[in-house]
# Entry
Amino acid sequence: MSRNNVKDLPTRPMTRRQFVQSATISAVLAAPMLRTRRAVADELPRLSEDDPTARALNYVHDAGSVDAAVRASDRYCNNCALFAGKADDDWAGCSIFPGKSVAGRGWCSVWAPKQPS
Ligand code: SF4
# Structure
């Protein structure tokens, strides 16, 4: 029988010490990945209002600068379904503008409501 066969491995229950070591190692390994994910979002270059797609979709960093006849006053990037960040993030990704971040208090004409979870 092969030395690498799983059936040949001893089947002993994990000791409490082994469990704690395993959990600690998992937590230590996971923490940088979480920080990296957040850092990637923070490091996205900011979308320029002069970007051709941004202009076509009327994107602005300051939603308050948009005429009230065009934009409902409660619509911001940070409450749009396409905003990748949290409601209190100043900047985050947007699936309409891949590789760029948009302002949380920004807006564009693609704004879509978040679906209730
Ligand atoms: S799609 Fe939504 S999150 Fe993206 S720029 Fe437009 S309003 Fe902002």
